[in-house]
Design goal:
Elements (H helix, E strand, L loop, with lengths): L12 H10 L6 H13 L3 E4 L6 H12 L3 E5 L6 H4 L1 E3 L1 H13 L5 H8 L5 E3 L1 H5 L9 E5 L6 H13 L1 E4 L3 E4 L5 E6 L7 H4 L3 E4 L5 H11 L5 H14 L10 H13 L7 H11 L3 H26 L1
């Protein structure tokens, strides 16, 4: 039965934008368009982009906004079927077998049917995602697919083709309604074209200054407006220089939050130096900023904001 809290899918691109905005996700029209199409066409959405640009957050926000459960498959090297799809509760099965033997049960076929029943089936994310009801299918997030190997990617290709999985002891389990699938990758390796062909694709880029300021204002509403503007401007300039890892939107939000906790109203060289570890996570990048680059960027930020006033 459909959950009464489930929200109908948006019927237009503008409605999709409103849905995301209502959950404090600031999306551009291109993202709203491909998301709307993915929902309408019941196709997986493949999101690619640098770490920290908000790919994972899209799935979380979508689940929250639609009132759907979020099922997350966090990918990693060595991920296999037992961790991703299902496995049997072997300990419980052994206890059941011992109990039946102790009671004198000798019907091997009945015993086998009993211990390989759904009672002992441990459902992992893929199987959970296929068990949603019509009108309330879950949002299935396959996060950082590029961390897995090609063998698992090929297995996933079969799942996404028919939205079903076969458990030899139970038979084929097919989704009553396909889940809303969001796949993310940080592009540490290329994903095979065969999987991409089954998806709609969108590259999630860093936001421009205006959109990033809107994001910070929503996520850290207690931050001083001047401070938020300086933080965003500073981060935007950092992304223009050569760093080992430029900060994502997540780091911008963290930095604004950290500075607010320190009761800062504006940036200054000492504050940037003291808190740069919230923003940058590699020592070579931090050293470059502390060796004068940070002061130069901060001076440009102050000058540009003053000129705009």
């Amino acid at each position: 039965m459909t959950d009464a809290k489930t929200i109908p899918l948006p019927q237009s691109i503008d409605a999709t934008l409103e849905l995301l905005s209502g959950a404090d996700y600031v999306a551009d029209r291109a993202l709203a368009t491909v998301l709307f199409l993915a929902l309408r066409m019941k196709r997986p959405l493949f999101l690619e982009g640098e770490a920290g640009v908000g790919k994972t957050e899209i799935a979380k926000v979508l689940a929250s906004a639609l009132g759907r459960p979020l099922i997350r498959l966090q990918c990693y090297e060595g991920l296999d079927v037992s961790s991703a799809v299902y496995e049997w509760n072997y300990a419980a099965q052994m206890i059941e077998i011992r109990m039946e033997e102790a009671e004198g049960a000798v019907d091997r076929r009945a015993m086998e049917k009993n211990v390989f029943s759904e009672k002992y089936l441990i459902r992992r994310p893929v199987l959970q995602a296929l068990e949603g009801k019509a009108g309330a299918a879950p949002v299935f997030l396959i996060d950082e697919l590029d961390r897995t190997d090609e063998a698992f990617e090929a297995f996933l290709l079969e799942i996404l083709a028919d939205f079903q999985v076969t458990v030899p002891e139970l038979g084929t389990i097919k989704a009553e309604e396909p889940p809303i699938v969001i796949i993310t990758t940080n592009r540490t390796r290329e994903i095979h074209d065969a999987l991409k062909r089954r998806c709609l694709y969108h590259w999630v880029d860093y936001p421009d200054a205006a959109r990033e300021l809107d994001i910070v204002s929503r996520k850290v509403p207690q931050a001083n407006r001047r401070l938020s503007a300086e933080v965003v401007k500073f981060v935007q300039k950092l992304r223009e220089i050569e760093l080992f890892k430029v900060p994502g939107v997540a780091e911008t939000i963290d930095w604004a939050g950290a500075l607010t906790e320190l009761d800062k109203m504006a940036l200054d060289p000492e504050t940037v130096s003291d808190t740069i570890g919230v923003l940058l996570k590699y020592q070579d990048d931090i050293a470059r900023i502390e060796q004068g680059e940070g002061r130069r960027l901060l001076k440009e930020v102050k000058a540009e904001l003053a000129a705009a006033e």
